[in-house]
Every structure is written in structure tokens, then in C-alpha cells.
Amino acid sequence: MTAYRIEPDQSEVYVEARSNVHPIEIRTQGVTGIIEVDTEPGRLKLSPAPRASIEIGADDLRSGIELYDKEIHRMIEVRKYRTIKCELLEVNELSAGHFQLKGTIQIHGVTRELDGDVTVQVNDDAVTLEIEGSKTIDMRDYDLDPPKILMLEVRPDVSIKAKLRAVRV
Q: What's the total number of domains in the chain?
């Protein structure tokens, strides 16, 4: 299989939490990892099964509002749980360039299985992969209580969107 390295400066994870006042947007470009997959011009090959391991520095999650960032980092316990980890377990093709993934995500020391749909673009010479997808999770599934910041009450369902760019190693 061919290894692809995620480019942190060209990849982003975006988290949107809703509150009783307004949405809270959290972004990070601290995404690292390796994707191992065989390709042919313009598409992925699913045999042998692709593998991927992705990490996000928990302290890289930032909203741009210092008060929110401190509360988010306190809630996640970034000093104790320094990374958010994702592992790919299974890939099924839904249609050309569209895939259903099954994997695990570890947040706050709690690992859960997830599935979700992504789009993948393989450039013609198979040097880069562009991957986009989103998933809504309930933070309580990861032993996280929705934070309350002054009068702001955050809802437990958060939307996670990822846009990753990986380059052949």
C-alpha cells in the first residue's frame, strides 16, 4: 500500500457547538496522521483494505475567544488527554468518490466507534488525496458534560467537519 501523510497546514477540523445564545465555532489545523491506501488514477482501491491513523492536538482546538477556549480546554482536560485519536476500521464505496467509513475516535480518554460518509478526490497522478466529511456526535458519549459559560449553555450535540489533504510519502 502507498502511504500518504496528512499535511497539517492544509488540513482542518471544524467543530460547531450550539448554545442558547449563538453557535460556537472551534477550528484546528493541528491534524497529523498517515493514510495507507492503494490508488489508481482518479480513484481509491479498497483491496487491500485502507488503513489510517489521525491525531489532533487537543490544545490546538481554538474558538478565538479566550474565555471559551479556557473552558473547552478545562472540560477536555487537555493536560491529561493531549490528543484526539482516530483509527480507520472499514471502508465501503457508496458511489464514485463517495465512501462510508467506520472507525474509532478517542476523545477525553473515551473511545467509541463511529461511522460516517466522506468524499475523496485522488488527483490523476495519485500524489494527493483530498478528503471531506462531517459527523454529529454527542459529547456526553465521551464523558464530557456540556459546558456552561456565564449565561451560555452549550448543547451536547456537536457537528464535526473535516477537510484533509494528504500527500504521498
A: 1
